[in-house]
Amino acid sequence: MKLKNKVIVITGASDGIGKQIALRLAKESSKLALIARDKIKLDEVSKEAKKLGAVDVRTYACDIRQTDKLEATIKTIISDFGAVDILINNAGIWQKLMSVDEIPKEVVDDVIGTNLSALIHITRLLLPTLRTRDEAAIINVTSKSGVLAQEGQSVYTASKYGVRGFTEVLKLDLKDTNVKVAGVYQSGTNTKMFEKTGENFPTEKFTNPSDLADVIGYMLTRPDKIWLHDVRVEK
């Protein structure tokens, strides 16, 4: 796919993997709609993306767990750009390692709401405009935890297994359309996601976010007859 002038929506774009995806795709002369909660960080990413060659970059501060606000944000994006060609569902939060009976109810709701429910809603809201494009794509940046059960990650893993199932059904539902679907299942990535929960373990040997962003860029820029629908990334 040629990404020049393609309108790409990226969630969780203010830092970590999402930021690096935005910067990588900016080099393809694309148009970016960046969603995250932190407006200041989003604007910083926007400036960097424009310097790297993005044709247009617009930022949308939104807590995607709040469905009403998410719906309003998507309407604004479609109004601003006219249509959307690519959706990259990247936003996600971590659950500190512990037994399920020790996890606060707020954490359960936040993890499921951010990692799974919001992803489903944003896909639901953008699918009608994606269907109108000559070529379109949805990439769900999931996690190794979507394919492998790991101790102490009950709620996080549940959310990621849910994303994997949702992705697989999307592939079937959209197989005869112009919308291509892929899941990316990466191992630990060197971001601040773990630190934000108070988790304290070394991440220096984890995958670099910029390297993972290169994988996303590679997937999207394959020739028309090639589509990588299921990508596993190990450190």
Structural description of this entry:
The chain is of the alpha/beta class and 235 residues long. The chain has 6 helices and 7 strands; from the N terminus they run E-H-E-H-E-H-E-H-E-H-E-H-E. The chain has one domain (7-233): NAD(P)-binding Rossmann-like Domain (Rossmann fold, 3-Layer(aba) Sandwich), CATH 3.40.50. Strands 3-2-1-4-5-6-7 form a 7-stranded parallel β-sheet, sandwiched between helices. Strand 1, helix 1 (16-26) and strand 2 form a beta-alpha-beta unit. The longest helix has 27 residues, at 105-131. The two termini are 27 Å apart.
Query: What integer value in Å does the Rg equal?
Result: 17 Å
| Major sheet characteristics | 7 strands, parallel
Low-confidence stretches are: none
How many structural domains are formed by the residues? Answer: 1
Shape: globular
Average of per-residue pLDDT values: 92
CATH architecture: 3-Layer(aba) Sandwich
Percent range for β-strand residues? 15-25%
Q: Can you give the helix content as a percent range?
A: 40-55%
What is the number of helical segments per DSSP (H or I, 4+ residues)?
A: 6
* N→C terminal distance: 27 Å
The CATH homologous superfamily is named: NAD(P)-binding Rossmann-like Domain
* CATH class type: Alpha Beta
CATH-assigned fold name: Rossmann fold
**What is the N-to-C succession of helices and strands?**
EHEHEHEHEHEHE
